[in-house]
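Please, structure for the following, as tokens.
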Amino acid sequence: MYAFNYHRPKSTDEAAKLVAEAEDGKLIAGGMTLLPSMKLRLAAPSDIVDLAAVEGLRGITVSGKTVTIGAMTRHVDVQTSAEVKKAIPALAALAGGIGDPSVRNRGTIGGSVANADPAADYPAAVLGLNATVETTKRKIAADDFFTGLFETALEPGEIIKAIHFPVPDAAAYEKFPQPASGFAMVGAFVARFGKDVRVAITGAKDHVFRVPDMEKALAAKFSGDAIAEIKLPDDDMMSDIHCSADYRAHLVTVMAKRAAAKAAG
């Protein structure tokens, strides 16, 4: 790890100012991605701006049909929240399947969403539940947030404050995890809001995406069998030592079918 300057601001304004003034400043939440990268000398920021002491970024509230989760809320807090379990049990279950206990007790929802790892779990929930990402500058719809490999709509100095999740009529998340890391080789989040259905896939392409054909089929018949024959092409699927592109394309159908069946009860 290379030397760096460490800052612990008390507000988002101070944090944004510190990042802007640094030669190569980086925000840190749980540190589950940045710190390992720094230890391996794959990242060498000049300044680290720790959000841990910033007030107002933690906590879970439910108001009407919306669950709001502060950006610095840990995975374990989402996993064990009685309010989340009651309102969106699929979201609590998803949080409980992230990494291992060490990761869940340090990692944060805001850090995961901002990092936008193509195999992370939370992006599937954000997109599948049609969530709104609230930042220090604006509110961003889920469909506009994830733009590419580790890329989002966030501008320099823009900090996630909270994520607002609409409560669905039914939802479920299923993933095929990489055995060592727990990351999704493919994960599918299915959510139904009245007659509208959303299907979000993570782990298959360079960023999370929706599957309109599956959404249309599930809107007509909300059952796993309704999408069992829908196949995606593998030409833009990721391929690595753990999983080939054609197998990932196969897993999209399998995981989406399982999630739909679970959500349908």
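The domain at 170-264 is CATH 3.30.390.50 (Enolase-like; domain 1). The chain has eleven helices and 14 strands.
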